[in-house]
Amino acid sequence: MGSQKQVTVGNVILGGGTVAVQSMTTEKTSDVEKSVAQILRLEEAGCDIVRVAVADEADARAIQLVKQNIHIPLVADVHFSAKLAVLAVESGADKLRINPGNIGGEQEITRVADTLKAHRVPVRVGSNTGSIEPHFLEKYGVSAAALVESALHNVRVLEKCGVSEIVISVKASSVPLTVEAYGLLHERVGYPLHLGVTEAGTEETGKIKSAIGIGSLLLRGIGDTIRVSLTADPVKEVHAAHEILRACGLESEYVEVVSCPTCGRCRYDCMGLAQRVSERVRTVRKRLKIAVMGCVVNGPGEARGCDLGLAGGKEYCVIIQKNRPDERVSADDAERVFFGRLEGLLQ
């Protein structure tokens, strides 16, 4: 995407031309069994990088055990304690997320910076509307300028300590404010940018806000890694992130399901079938296009360019597949036959 500098997080390169998907666990990190189980679910969903909260020493020490049982890079999220930040890195965190402004004084920040450099671990710093320093709020108010200046102030603190492996974020719960802030930041730095709309809300609202905010930035060539923040199962964050990347044309190895909105001509469970097909192919990494259409008026023509399609009716359905004659099957058998064809394509 747009950054000029690359930062390596475990085996993932940020700024390397692809966009990495992140999420964050909701389990207590020191509960290793539950944390690992949740991260493995995130991996299966397509998560590239996972973040865990480090609230105490038990969380920090648990990172080593968690990492032994997962397969993606782990980011330690630490606030208010230089000691915990150092311990998290020493326990094997692949990246650290801190706000230097709340870690402590110059001595504590230098201690964290020295640990990052010694272990060659990158750091994400940034601001959101709830953590802007008072003097920036006084000067700029709650604005894109305040977010950017706050983030860059923290970046300069780390740069002064010799840290150069940095990722930056400037998040707001307001979509227009988020987009404006990242646009300003993109013009001023070459570091990789972590995109997200913070406090986006529950699944439905959060997906819409994140799609607009993150998607509009990605289409401008801004952003190297994304996290969709939802008050929901974090697996749903990963699913939503991939949907955004696909809609922006930034992910090609997936099964695209197209379906019509249906109308009064639809006489079979088109909505249900489309949902069942989508769930089946959600994590499949293969380029296919599948169509689920509501009727036989326009459905066959609309599905013609797909690898597999179905147009339904009350008594019969038509199954359309590349390089095969159209097949007319009874409505009762249509879903079974259709899924049989689909499984053949997924092999």
How would you characterize the overall build of this protein?
The chain is an alpha/beta fold. It is 44% helix and 19% strand. It is built from 13 helices and 15 strands. It has helices at residues 32-45, 57-67, 82-90, 100-103, 106-119, 134-140, 144-160, 175-188, 203-218, 234-247, 270-281, 299-303, 331-346, and strands at 7-9, 12-14, 20-24, 49-54, 74-78, 95-97, 123-128, 166-171, 194-195, 225-227, 255-259, 288-293, 308-311, 316-321, 327-330. The chain has an eight-stranded parallel β-sheet with strand order 8-7-6-5-4-3-10-9. The protein has a five-stranded mixed β-sheet with strand order 11-12-13-14-15. Helix 7 crosses helix 8 (175-188). The longest helix is centred in the middle third of the chain and has 17 residues, at 144-160. The protein is elongated, with a radius of gyration of 23 Å. The model has no long low-confidence stretch (mean pLDDT 92).
Could you write a compact summary of the structure shown?
It is built from 13 helices and 15 strands.
